[in-house]
Design brief:
about 90 residues; flat; single chain; mainly alpha; two-stranded antiparallel sheet
């Protein structure tokens, strides 16, 4: 029986979701974050990034945790800040 395009799409989506659940090694995480291994080590040493260390040996990361680290400290655009200020002034009146 042939897979329909929808079945193929579902399979591709499932594969992508499973890839996100697979742990990344220390080297893979450094590459994903575009940082040096020494910088990533400093982040783990200072507990500034979430990591897993089973059996107190190798260090692993979840891609979702790395994304949280990447997307922290968001800086809004001028337009967003102006809109927030306008919303604040109009709500206070």
């Amino acid at each position: 029986m042939k897979n329909t395009p929808i079945q193929k799409l579902n399979e591709n989506i499932e594969q992508l979701l499973q890839q996100d659940e697979n742990p990344l090694s220390f080297s893979e995480a450094a590459q994903y974050l575009s940082v040096s291994k020494s910088h990533l080590y400093k982040l783990t040493h200072k507990n500034q990034i979430t990591f897993f260390k089973p059996n107190n040996k190798l260090i692993y990361f979840k891609k979702a945790d790395l994304n949280k680290y990447i997307f922290r400290n968001r800086k809004g655009s001028e337009m967003e800040l102006e809109q927030k200020a306008l919303d604040y002034v109009t709500q206070g009146a």
